[in-house]
Write a structure and sequence with these properties.
By secondary structure, the protein is of the alpha/beta class. The protein has three domains: 131 residues, Gcn5-related N-acetyltransferase (GNAT) (Aminopeptidase), CATH 3.40.630.30; 131 residues, no CATH class; 84 residues, no CATH class. The protein contains 16 helices and 13 strands. A six-stranded mixed β-sheet has the order 1-2-3-4-6-5. Strands 9-8-7-10 form a four-stranded parallel β-sheet, with no helix packed on it. Helix 14 runs antiparallel to helix 16. The chain is elongated. The N and C termini lie far apart (65 Å).
Length: 357
C-alpha cells in the first residue's frame, strides 16, 4: 500500500484497492510470490499468476524509498525468467498509469484493443493493459552447448579466420556478435573497445542482467593471447566455473581453455565449405522443405570472369574463413569482371580456390 500511495492517491481510493492488493498466507505459493530484500529488509514484491501458456504479472510493487534503484527491474526480470521456465508464452499486465513508463522501458507493449474504445475520457486512475513475452525455454541443444549455465564468451573472430590463411586484421567489429552464442553470457571478452550502452541496451532487450564485458583487450585482434598474458583476467575467466565458448576454436584459445583433443581438427574440417556442403547434403539433401544449394569449384579467375560476364548470379566463397571479409576493400579500383575476378583470386596460403555455391 505504501508503494501505491507514493503516486499521490487519496485514502478513499487506497481503501478501495486494499483487498485487491492483499496477499494472504495461502497466496504466497499459489501466486508464485517473490520478494526482493536487502540485508533482511523487504524492498519489493511480485507475483506470477495463472497457468501456462497465458498468465499475468499480478503484482509488482517496490518500497517508495527503494524506487529507481533497480529493484522493480530485478523483480520484473525474475518473474519473466520464471514464466519462461514454466512454459508461459505471454503475460498480461494491468499497469497503474504512473508505472507505464517503467513497463515500457523494460519492453512491455500496449495490449491490442479487443473492442471499440470506451466513450468519453478515461479515468486518471484507470489501469493500462500491457503485454510482456517471457523468454522461451532454452532448447536442449543450446543447453548442451553452454552447459545450461551462463558461459564466458570470447570474441576471437579475426583470430579464428586468421588460422585459415587470412590476415589477422584489426579487431573485427563483428566480434561483438559472439555475445549471442549463448542464451545469456556471464562474461564477454572482446578485442575492440565497446561503450557501456551497448551491453546495457542488449541486456534490456534480451532480459539479461549482470553481464560483464571486458573490451579493448587486443589492438591486433589476438584476444586469446591477450587474455593469456593477463594473469588476473585469466584467473577471473577460470574462476567463473562456467564453460568458456569462443567465436571459433583456435590453438590460442585452447591455451586458455583446454577442450576436446580433436576440436581443432573438427573445426578445420568443417570450416571448409566443401566439407560443410557435403555434410549438409548428407543431413538434409532429401528433406522436402530444405533446399541445399549447388556448389562447385571455379578453377581460375578467368572462369569466374566468364560467369560474371554472362550475368549469372554467383555467390562467391573462399574455401575457408569468412567468404566476403575484406572483399569490398580489395575490389575498390578494380571495375569490370576480369579485374574483379583477379582481385578475388587465391592469396598465398589461402588453403583453397574459388568456390561457386
Amino acid at each position: 500500500m505504501r508503494s501505491k500511495a507514493a503516486w499521490g492517491y487519496d485514502e478513499a481510493f487506497l481503501d478501495a484497492c486494499r483487498e485487491q492488493l492483499r496477499i494472504r498466507p495461502g497466496d504466497v505459493i499459489r501466486r508464485r510470490t517473490v520478494v526482493a530484500e536487502r540485508r533482511g529488509r523487504p524492498l519489493g514484491v511480485a507475483t506470477l499468476d495463472g497457468d501456462p501458456p497465458d498468465g499475468e504479472l499480478g503484482l509488482l510493487f517496490v518500497e517508495p524509498d527503494a524506487m529507481r534503484q533497480g529493484v522493480g527491474r530485478a523483480l520484473y526480470r525474475h518473474v519473466l525468467a520464471e514464466a519462461g521456465r514454466l512454459g508461459f508464452r505471454r503475460l498480461a499486465i494491468d499497469a497503474d498509469p504512473h508505472a507505464v513508463p517503467f513497463y515500457r522501458a523494460v519492453h512491455a507493449e500496449p495490449a491490442p484493443l479487443t473492442g471499440p474504445p470506451a466513450a468519453g475520457p478515461a479515468a486518471e486512475d484507470a489501469l493500462v493493459p500491457l503485454l510482456a513475452w517471457p523468454p522461451a525455454r532454452e532448447p536442449s541443444w543450446s543447453a548442451a552447448w553452454d552447459g545450461g549455465t551462463p558461459p564466458v564468451i570470447v570474441g576471437n573472430a579475426a583470430e579464428f579466420n586468421g588460422q585459415f590463411g587470412q590476415d589477422v586484421r584489426g579487431p573485427d567489429h563483428y566480434s561483438c556478435l559472439a555475445a549471442f552464442c549463448a542464451a545469456r553470457p556471464a562474461l564477454v571478452l572482446l578485442p575492440m573497445p565497446v561503450e557501456g550502452w551497448w551491453i546495457e541496451h542488449v541486456g534490456a532487450v534480451l532480459g539479461w542482467a549482470g553481464v560483464r564485458v571486458h573490451s579493448g583487450l587486443a589492438g591486433d585482434a589476438r584476444v586469446c593471447a591477450a587474455v593469456g598474458a593477463r594473469p588476473e583476467l585469466l584467473r577471473r575467466v577460470t574462476a567463473e566455473h562456467a564453460r568458456v565458448l569462443p567465436w571459433g576454436w583456435t590453438a590460442d584459445f585452447a591455451a586458455i581453455a583446454p577442450g576436446p583433443r580433436d576440436a581443432l581438427r573438427a573445426v578445420r574440417r568443417y570450416e571448409s565449405k566443401r566439407h560443410a556442403h557435403t555434410l549438409f547434403r548428407a543431413l538434409a539433401g532429401e528433406h522436402p522443405r530444405i533446399a541445399v544449394p549447388a556448389q562447385r569449384p571455379l578453377g581460375s579467375p578467368r572462369a569466374l570472369a566468364r560467369e560474371l560476364a554472362d550475368g549469372r548470379r554467383v555467390v562467391l566463397k573462399r574455401e575457408y574463413g569468412v567468404g566476403g571479409a575484406g572483399d569490398p576493400d580489395r575490389l575498390r579500383g578494380h571495375p569490370g569482371a576480369a579485374p574483379a575476378a583477379a582481385a578475388l583470386g587465391p592469396r598465398r596460403g589461402a588453403g583453397g580456390g574459388i568456390r561457386r555455391g
